[in-house]
Structures are given as structure tokens and as C-alpha cells.
Amino acid sequence: MKAKIDELETNSNIKNISDLYMGINNLKNGYPCRTNKAKDENGDLVTYIHSIFARWRNHFSQLLTTHGVNDVHQTEIQIPEPLKPEPSASEFGMAIAK
Fold it and tell me: Which of 56, 8, 52, 57 is nearest to 34 (CA)?
């Protein structure tokens, strides 16, 4: 705690206002507690850490598992034709002359 107070005093002395206020807020409010919760497939709340990890594992395995993707075809990529033809040598000459 003394180190935190010394740091606040140093920030005050060197006019480092943003760090001073951030340090004051951290001391005043403390750190927000983290909660470990998740909902299972039925929507019930799960709080046991191993159950939460299992839930996330199941969620992503279901999300990343593809069903019925055997009918994917290799499609040909169509490249559009240019809208204007390339300029001729005479058009180049006229552009340079201008």
C-alpha cells in the first residue's frame, strides 16, 4: 500500500495527472472481481471451472464441425473483360503531344 501511495505522490509532484487519477481510481474502487460463469446447452448457469471449460470445448467443436459439406465443387473463377480497349499508338502520340 505504501508503494502505491508513493507512486501517487510522485505522479502528483511531476504533474502526471492521468496516471495520478488512474491510480486514485484503482485505490478507491479496487479491482472488479472476475466471475467465471457460462450457460450450458439448456441455458442453466455453470460455475465450476471444469464444467465451463467442457462447455466451451463442446461449443467450439459444434461450431467448427461441418455437416454435409461433401458436395462442394471447384468452381471456375471468371475474370471480367476490361471495359475499355487498350489505347492505340496514335492515341498515345496525341496524349503526349497535348
Answer: 52
Same domain, 37 and 23: no
C-alpha distances (whole Å) from 16 to each of 38, 42, 59 are 40, 51, 46
- Shared domain for 45 and 19, answered yes or no, is no
Indicate whether 6 pLDDT > 60. Answer: yes
pTM (2 decimals)? 0.36
* Predicted confidence (pLDDT) at residue 39 exceeds the cutoff of 80: yes
Q: How crowded is the C-beta side of 11, counted as CA atoms within 13 Å?
A: 15
Pairwise CA distance, residues 79 & 82, whole Å: 9
